[in-house]
């Protein structure tokens, strides 16, 4: 750390003057002291110089066209690395644009820090109408895991340290750090400043499970007749890949990955029960949740989806997660690596393997469903539909198993998740816990910058629209992102009509036959327009091999999608209207 803070000469260099530094420098020094090397953001008063300085001091500053996408990039960087991603914005509106991403990160348990410049406390608190005046700290609080403000330059080191620890320790989440303009220009004695820096030690300490909790879980598992393991994105985040694989393989229990946990073990693993999802959820009797919450994505652990009564083992770092929706018979609170390792320790050669009838039933169901899916995928309708296009993407990912996959939309999300096998951990990034649209280009940029590897962004045409302007960012930084737009002329599909016969199109309908490929050409990227699986395959191969910013406008049958994809049960009004 000795070389972190360079001492800068005072501007009015009087003889023997004390050497001074300022808030701008200290923020950068505090981040660098904690090995943070990238900032995603968008400049303006009062943080433009902060961004300039970050770059001048050797950090990477990735400038966006809208703060929400900078925030999403930071969030996904945090998820990939277990280090908080940093998003930097201006005050009030810029902050609010970033807040959506901060809230999404908190909801998904991604560690990130939103740093926003703010206007002066004296004016904000008396509501005297400052430039971009807003009480940002209080606005951020309900949507962040923690929110802090620093008022004195000597507290910058501690403020950054608190933000880092809050973001990554325990259940990860989004943290807001408020930096008023005056703080940034405050000067401080350089020696004192250097001493005020804090390097966070063991930011996310291991949290060991209690031995009696481990025993309770093992006893429950030993008595199971139809056990199932459910892996969530918390399991992927924890980077306990080896322990999780050992647990699955030693116990022989079938497992289901949640969307972003796909690839933690390759989806082609023989114990994967993905293709028999409904069957195993309904029929299992003991379910081990590993970093997965029983929220709406898992029907809250009850109802028809879950069929037979069952007992849950839940592994989570957050004690409050237990019993959130249904009773948890064996809570295992701790970090996933430690908890799973503790379970593996108890799984000796005498550990009972799941009964053969259960494994046979799962594989029979799985094979049947895989055959059905293969038949659907083999069809070649004209125009192309979701399935025939996704067959091509599935094969491309198989050939490029280390490619990062970003995915959003309704039908585009639901079908891609089911059809595209993943082979490596933390390579799939999608709409997540909220089912939010708009993560596409932000996640793509974050994933490309963080991994240095290519990204395939699979986007519904509506979903893409939320972040489409970031194509310019992708082109500006020459990122190897290939965006494929499933273009069916609207939200879900493009065939709705205005029942009044009026001039306005239906609420779900877009401009027909839009050419999204031309958008990327405006910024020097390469665009393709394809209408058949053969054309799509050729374009994809060329695009990925080029390593350049590319966009493929894949024309899909405008009648192919269903309303809300597979979420029709959450859309009762629409179902009623159609009656
Ligand atoms: P999914 O959407 O894939 O089902 P969720 O986001 O619902 O996953 O759940 C992730 C869970 O993982 C959260 O409850 C979070 O507290 C937990 N978690 C995150 N990181 C860890 C970790 N390192 N150890 C234990 N639990 C973790
Ligand atoms: N706004 C935000 C921020 N998130 C949302 N999830 C929605 C609106 C509602 N919404 C969905 O849930 S999916 C979707 C919207 C607008 C787009 C679906 O259309 P698409 O995908 O073209 O992206 P498909 O594949 O054609 O269904």
Q: Descriptors for this entry?
A:
single chain, six-stranded parallel sheet, 39% helix, alpha/beta, binds ligand TZD, binds adenosine-5'-diphosphate, Rossmann fold, 23 helices, 3 domains, 579 residues
Q: Give the percentage of residues in beta strands.
A: 15-25%
Bound molecule types: adenosine-5'-diphosphate, ligand TZD
* Parts with pLDDT < 50 across at least 5 consecutive residues: 1-7
Largest sheet, order of strands side by side? 3-2-4-5-7-6
Largest sheet: 6 strands, parallel
Gap from first CA to last CA: 68 Å
Instruction: Sum up the overall morphology in one term.
Output: globular
* Helix percent band: 25-40%
Number of strands: 19
The CATH superfamily of the largest domain is identified as Thiamin diphosphate (ThDP)-binding fold, Pyr/PP domains
Radius of gyration: 25 Å
Oligomeric state of this protein = single chain
Could you report the average pLDDT, rounded to the nearest whole number?
95
CATH class of the largest domain: Alpha Beta
Total count of helical runs of at least 4 residues = 23
**Remind me, CATH topology of the largest domain?**
Rossmann fold
Write the CATH architecture name of the largest domain.
3-Layer(aba) Sandwich
The assigned structural class equals alpha/beta
How many domains, in number, for the residues?
3
EC number: 4.1.1.8
Catalytic activity: oxalyl-CoA + H(+) = formyl-CoA + CO2
Family: Belongs to the TPP enzyme family.
Organism: Paraburkholderia franconis
